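Re: that backbone. C-alpha cells:
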C-alpha cells in the first residue's frame, strides 16, 4: 500500500475519455482522487508507467497502473463487481457493448466538431483553451493558460479533416447529431439510463462525448440544454456524486426508444468500422511483424449523402471485437432473441462479420493475434 490509499484518476476536466471513467468511479463509489495531467505529470508518471501518452490512467492503491477506459472499467469490475455495469442478459449486454463502441469510436466526431468549429464564439473557445492550458499548470492565470492552450490544442483542433469533418460533411454531421439528441431526449424522458434504472457500460461510453465536449463546452452545452433537456439531465445524473442505482429492465427488455439509436448506428457507423476491419486485414498481410500504427492510411466514408475521406483507426477493430465476440458466442434462445433485435434495427448482416486477423492490447499497444483465426481466402 502507498501512503495514500485512494485510487488515482489521471485526467483532465475537459478530456473526453476521462469523463467516461470519472462517472464510472462515482457510480461505483470507489474512493479516488483526480490528478491533473500536466505536462510534468505526463513526463514523470504517465509516459514512464504506461509507455503511451493518453489519458485517462488509473493507479490503484497497490500501484497497478491501467490505461484505456475499457480496460480500466473491466479491471475495476473485477475488484468492485456489484452493481455490475454489464447486464447479465443477452440483448441488453449486446446493446450496452454496441453503444460503448459507437460512443467511443464514432460520437467522437460530433464532439470534435462542436468543440473546434466555433472559434468565433469567444466564451466557448476561451474556456476550451484555458482548459488546454492546464497542461502547463492548473494554477497559471487564465490569460496565460489561454496562450499556452493555443499551442497545446493544435493536434486536436487540427484533427477535424483527418476525421472526415469538413465543410462538406458538417451539415450532415450536425443533422445526425441533432437526430440522435432528439432520439435520446425521448428515451431519457422515460428511462433514467439506457437500459432502465442502472447505468451500463453503454451509458459510460456515451458519457465521453456527451459530457466533456457536448455537455460541457459552452456552445454544444447550450444546444443540449435547449434542444434535449432530458439528455442534459442524464449527463448530470451520470456525474452525480451520490448515485442511486436500481436495476436493469426486467426480462431483457430493450426499450423501443433505443431502436432508432441502434438503427442510426448500424446505418452510419458500421460501414466505416467494417471497412476498417478489411483494411486492417490487408495491412497486416502486407506488413507482417511490423508494429501497428495508430492510423493506417485513409478510406472513403459517407455522412448522409456526402462522401469524404478519413483516417483508418485500427483500434476501432479492438472495440468492435467486444460486441461481435459476445454476439457470436450466443446460441439457442439467446441467439434467437439477439437475432430478432438485430433484424429490427438493420444490424443482422453486419454482425455476421468474421474477423480473420484479430487484434489485442499488450502493454497498452495494439498487436495482431499470433495466427489468423480464419484462412486467407486469397491464398486458396
Ligand atoms: N481508447 C482510449 C482513448 C484515450 C484518448 O484518446 N484520450 C485522449 C484524451 S480524451 C488523449 O489522451 N489523446 C492524446 C492523443 O490523442 O495523442 C481510451 O478509451 O482510453
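Recovered sequence:
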Amino acid at each position: 500500500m502507498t501512503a495514500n490509499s485512494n485510487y488515482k484518476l489521471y485526467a483532465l476536466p475537459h478530456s473526453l475519455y476521462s469523463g467516461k471513467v470519472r462517472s464510472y468511479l462515482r457510480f461505483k463509489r470507489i474512493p479516488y482522487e483526480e490528478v491533473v495531467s500536466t505536462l510534468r505529470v505526463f513526463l514523470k508518471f504517465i509516459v514512464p508507467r504506461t509507455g503511451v501518452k493518453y489519458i485517462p490512467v488509473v493507479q490503484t492503491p497497490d500501484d497497478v497502473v491501467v490505461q484505456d477506459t475499457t480496460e480500466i472499467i473491466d479491471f475495476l469490475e473485477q475488484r468492485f463487481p456489484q452493481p455490475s455495469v454489464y447486464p447479465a442478459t443477452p440483448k441488453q449486454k449486446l446493446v450496452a457493448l454496441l453503444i460503448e463502441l459507437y460512443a467511443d469510436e464514432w460520437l467522437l466526431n460530433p464532439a470534435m466538431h462542436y468543440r473546434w468549429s466555433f472559434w468565433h464564439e469567444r466564451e466557448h473557445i476561451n474556456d476550451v483553451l484555458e482548459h488546454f492550458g492546464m497542461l502547463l499548470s492548473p494554477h497559471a492565470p487564465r490569460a496565460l493558460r489561454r496562450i499556452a492552450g493555443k499551442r497545446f490544442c493544435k493536434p486536436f483542433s487540427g484533427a477535424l479533416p483527418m476525421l472526415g469533418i469538413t465543410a462538406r460533411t458538417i451539415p450532415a454531421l450536425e443533422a445526425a447529431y441533432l437526430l440522435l439528441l432528439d432520439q435520446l431526449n425521448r428515451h431519457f424522458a422515460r428511462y433514467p439510463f439506457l437500459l432502465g434504472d442502472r447505468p451500463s457500460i453503454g451509458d459510460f461510453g456515451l458519457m465521453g462525448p456527451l459530457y466533456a465536449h457536448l455537455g460541457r463546452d459552452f456552445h454544444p452545452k447550450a444546444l443540449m440544454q435547449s434542444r434535449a433537456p432530458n439528455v442534459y439531465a442524464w449527463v448530470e445524473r451520470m456525474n452525480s456524486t451520490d448515485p442511486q442505482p436500481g436495476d436493469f429492465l426486467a426480462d431483457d427488455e430493450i426499450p423501443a426508444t433505443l431502436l432508432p439509436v441502434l438503427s442510426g448506428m448500424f446505418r452510419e457507423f458500421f460501414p466505416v468500422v467494417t471497412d476498417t476491419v478489411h483494411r486492417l486485414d490487408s495491412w497486416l498481410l502486407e506488413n507482417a511483424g511490423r508494429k501497428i500504427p495508430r492510423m493506417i492510411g485513409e478510406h472513403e466514408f459517407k455522412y448522409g449523402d456526402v462522401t469524404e475521406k478519413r483516417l483508418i483507426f485500427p483500434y476501432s477493430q479492438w472495440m468492435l471485437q467486444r460486441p461481435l465476440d459476445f454476439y457470436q458466442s450466443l446460441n439457442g434462445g439467446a441467439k434467437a432473441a439477439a437475432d430478432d433485435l438485430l433484424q429490427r434495427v438493420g444490424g443482422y448482416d453486419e454482425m455476421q462479420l468474421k474477423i480473420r486477423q484479430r487484434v489485442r492490447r499488450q502493454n497498452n499497444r495494439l498487436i495482431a493475434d499470433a495466427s489468423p483465426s480464419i484462412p486467407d481466402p486469397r491464398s486458396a
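The longest helix spans residues 170-190. Strands lie at 7-11, 32-36, 57-59, 65-67, 298-303, 306-311, 359-362, 365-368.
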